[in-house]
Amino acid sequence: APNHAFRFTDEAPQGDEAGYVFVSWGDGAANYASRLVYREEWGGYIRNVGQDRSVWYADRDAEEGAIAFANVIVQFTRVEYNHNNKLEPVAYVIGENGAPAQGNADFFMGGVHVQGYWKRDAMDARTVYYGPDGQEIELQRGRTLIIIFPDDGEDGKSVSYR
Hints:
Elements lengths: L6 E3 L6 E2 L2 E6 L8 E6 L4 E6 L7 E2 L1 E2 L3 E2 L1 E2 L1 E7 L1 E3 L7 E3 L9 E9 L2 E9 L7 E3 L7 E3 L3 E7 L6 E5 L1
Parallel strand pairs: 1-16, 10-17
Antiparallel strand pairs: 2-14, 3-4, 3-18, 4-5, 5-6, 5-9, 7-8, 10-13, 11-12, 13-14, 14-15
């Protein structure tokens, strides 16, 4: 993609409180469910994955322990499956025949939720994320986790926060 750097800020974001974020991939996919917990002392969200609290495990860095994500972006898009095989998803982050694509997005930064959207103009362009004001969103400095998520809301798939 052409050079188009993300924008960053040191200012705290404004939004709804979101100390906990839950990502459910629906029935039959409990092993892939994610629970993200904001830890101010770590400067981000710790992601735990698994069926229930007794078997959840955190993303790990061999040298530093658990990984904290300063930004969590949930990018909603149409998802189809190759040959009806649920193990081979095709996410539409670009439109048909290379046309522009866009969709809604949820941003979790600094323990808050900000609603926005994403847009990608062409296959060789970078995805650009926008806030509720229509301006390119400014992310917090640090690691960013981008979750490509189906926008159909079927089969118990959901993203929630509190």
